[in-house]
Structures are given as C-alpha cells and as structure tokens.
Amino acid sequence: MPVIQKSQPALRSGGRVLADALVAQGIDHVFAVPGESYLDVLDGLYADSKLVKLVTCRFEAGAVNMAEAYGKLTGRPAAAFVTRGPGACHGAIGVHIAFQDSTPLLLFVGQIPFGETDRESFQEVDYRRMFAPLAKWVTQIDDAARIPELIAHAVDVATSGRPGPVVIALSEEMQRHMVAVADIGRADVAVAYPDPAAIAKMMALLAKSEKPLAILGGTRWTEPGRAAIATFLKAHDIPVAVGFRRQALYDGTAENFVGDIGVGSDPALVARAREADLILAIGTRLGEPVSQGYTLFDKTPIVHIYPDAGEIGRVFRPTLGIVSELNAFAAGVVKLKPALKGANAQPWSAWTQELRALRQKGREVPSYAGTLNLADAMRSLETLMTPDAIITCDAGNFATWAPRFINFADGQRFIGPTNGAMGYAVPAAVGAKIAFPERQVIGLVGDGGFLMTGQEIATAFHHGVAPIILVFNNQMFGTIRMYQEGRYPGRVSGTALTNPDFAKFIEAFGGHGEIVEHTADFAPAFARAVASGKPAVIELRMNPEQITTRATIADLREAAGGTKKPAKRGAAARKVTGRK
After folding, report:
1. CA atoms within 13 A on the CB side of 258
2. Mind listing the pLDDT tens digit for each residue in 3-17?
3. Do residues 552 and 546 lie in contact, with contact meaning Cβ atoms separated by under 8 Å?
4. Hey, what domains does the chain have and what are their CATH numbers?
5. Contact predicate 540/470, CB 8 Å
6. Overall pTM > 0.90
7. How far apart are the first and last CA of the chain?
8. Between the CA of residue 69 and those of 112, 314, 464, what are the distances in Å?
9. Of 272, 391, 523, 532, whose CB neighbour count within 10 A is largest?
C-alpha cells in the first residue's frame, strides 16, 4: 500500500487518524447524525474541515441515503456516520439500498467500549452479525494503529467487482488512543478487461441475431465509458433498454433507446423482449424486476457482461459470460465495426425502429380523468429541466409517471432505489444538491414517502442548497392499494393516509410551496419554484382513482371480479383511500 508520510508520523488520536484516513482515500463528503459514540471522530473532522465537507442530517436513514445517492452519482463512496444501536438500526435501510443497487458506500457506526463487549451494554449490537447479509464487508476497529489499513481496504472492497456498502464499527475508547501511524493513500488497482476471444464470440453471436436487445445496468459508469458504450450500440443500431431505475445510463432521446424494463414497464416492450433472440446484458444483474419475476429470459440466449464472476450465471445460465469492469468493456468494443447487410443497414434495423416506435407511442398522453393530467405535467417537466438536471425518485406507483413520459437526455441523471425503499428521494435530492450545488436537482416522491424522511429538507436549509421536491399526493399507499384491490377488491384496509398541506410544510421552514390541482398550473408553479431560489415543494394533488399510468382502481376491481364503478374526479376524488 502507498504510505503518504516519509518521516516519523506524529502522535494522533484514533479519531484524528480516522478523519485523516478518509482524506487520504479521497473521501470528501461525510453525511452524519452526531452521536456520543464517535465524538472523537467529529473532533478529527473539525481539524480536517477544509478537506472534508461534514453534512449534519436529521435522521440516520436520511444520512445514509444521502451518502448512497452521492455514490450513485459519482461512482466514489461517501461516508455516513451514525451512532450505535438505534442509529445503526435507522441507517440500515440505506445499507440495504446500497447493497441491492450495487453502490459504493462506507457506513461508520459508533460502538460501545470494547471492554464491555457481550454484557449487553447500553445500545450494544454485534454489527458483524447485524449487517452480514446487507453489506459486502463488516468489520470493527479496536486498534487505532490499524485504522489506515482498514479504511484503505474498505474503500477497495466498496469499489471493486460488484460495488457495494462496507460497514465499519468504531469502538469508543479506540478513538481516544494516541498512536503514531502513517496514512495510507489510494492505490491504483488494475481493472478486469474483457477477453478478446470472448468479444469475438459475442460479435459472432450478434452477427447471427435478427432480434437482439441490449439491457444496460450497473454502477460506476464513467462519462467516457457511457460515451463509448453508446457509440458501440448506436453504430450497430442495437435497441437499448435500461434496467429498473437505470435511466441515467443512456440517452433517452437516442433513436435506439426503447425504454426501461422493470417495475411498471410498457407491456408492449416486455412482450417484444420475449421475442428477442439475443440479450446483451451489459452491467445488469438480470434480477427480479428486470426479468419480470425471473420469467423473461429463461429461453433466450444471453451474453452477460459483469465485473463480478459470482453474478454471471447466478440465475440465468448465459450462452456467454464476460467478466469485465464495465468501462473497460465499453472501451474494448467502441471501435468494433458493425457487420452491415445491404447498403448501410443492420439485419435488425427494422426491429430497432419497431421498438423505438413503441417507446414513442407509449409516451403519447392519454386523456386521463381528473383536472390534473400527470402525463401532461411530466411532458412539461421534460422541457423545463436543465440539460444537466439530477432527478431523484422514491419508491411507489407514482414513480412510473416520469420514466414512462420523459425521455431523459444524455446529460441528465435519474436515480432511485432498485430495492423499492420508500423515503429515499428527499434525502437523495438534498445530498445531490449539496454535492452538485450548481446543478438543478428535482426529487419525485409520494405523500407516503415524503412523510418518512421529508424532514431532511431542513438539511437543505442548513447547508444553503435548494432542491425542488414534487410530492405526488393521492392520500394513499398506492402500490399496496393496487395489490390490495387486485386480491381483495373494494376491501380497503390499512392503506389510506391523512396528509398535511405540503406547501405550508415547506413554508414553515422558510421555503417555497406550491399546490397544483390543474394541468395548466404545473409549468408556472415549477417556474416560480425555480425562480424563488429556495428549497421548494410542489404538491401535485392527483386523481387517486388513477392508481397507475395504465389502470384505475375500477379497472383493478373489475379484473379481480368486483364491480366496476365510475372514476371519481376533482376534489372529491382525493377522498378515495389508498398507498404509493
């Protein structure tokens, strides 16, 4: 490992050594809810305040979600700090998000004094056992002299292979021990490059294909890597879908972009995907959402490109598996020349055009019942977003409106939790705006998710940043209501919500609030929110009868054998119970 100091290192406390170790590893953002169990680290961060931005958050789940969003957007891990016991439990959901979303993340947990271990001391938890199924690696530091070594290894683990979270417990008294130890800098680690023979096999399979489909996924894509894979896919005119909540990976305006495959996908695209005779799975795990419950690719030849050999063939046995870091794969194929058929056409060009036409048809705005047509609002948002906008999304049925009706452009980023965790969008938006204050940041969240972590908007005020949050309010936990109506039509139980005035909520902080009940009011409201320069909430009072972009509650009841009732409209419709 590269050692930074050449002279004899000075004595430092464990807390200071840890702060310095973060700096040495290039960690420049720390998201934290303070706790007495790591006061000495906070003091170390005070000494390094010019090198590390410490973001004080209001809830541990919010802090870890901010760090996770940072990792998604940059490909580099941020650090989250929580206190022991309750703090660790609150923060665990962010670790689960990072694990299933393959996001690099470091979570530090204050721990009891190691001399009190196994006495069920105040807030004692065995974090190795607690986080074992949620993290790539869990460790505890009891010897301050090992801090540089273990932090360096933690960063390596979090960013290598399939990226993910690492959890490090910090025993309390270790942080006060004085040690003379050198800092360890980042090491250059050679990534896995694709086997040229495997690339040749892939191209041979592609040459025989008549209906190929590329599905992009994964994390830690660089800008050159994204550009290279786009060049390859466009040159070969291969239709490109993105995996669940991976819209950030491909230019939605490109003529070979055909949509997303995951939760809420266009049924027409899913049907065509079943007709594909070759799947190029580039970076995606082909998990449950992308595979439509592990049913979509069981008979289709697959070329699976992934940086971790353990994920290749885990569920679907591929025709060809290629172990490669994703950007290295893109660099390895970017200059490959397509095998043309006829004058200047691929053998599958008509197939690509057909899938693109389906995408465009799916974006046509239906005549939804009610005064606020969310499809129209999303098409307006598409024109109002800046070219480099960052969009964060929560979990829930509302989350399908934007991906269906917006083609996110190449410079824009759309991120959300692939594990379906509610309460992600607001802290993610705040964290994204803190990391990228010059970019427009928009959070999309349901009324249920907003009241889980919406208080993190206070963090935006504290740090002087102004994200814009769109709250989709239908007064229900909509996803659960959807399933409830499908199984027990008309028997509404436990899914209704009573909400505050969300505009007044943000105004109480000193921010900008808007309520939108009519389609024509959305664009002016958004423009006013931008012009305010303040953290803003735009409450979209949607028709709760329109439970998804493609179905009403009445449709679900009829399909389940219940009685179909007329769709409710306007203010009265908001009284229908139900959740996102």
Report:
1. 29
2. 555 568 899 999 999
3. yes
4. 12-179 (3.40.50.970), 196-360 (3.40.50.1220), 374-573 (3.40.50.970)
5. yes
6. yes
7. 48
8. 29, 27, 18
9. 391
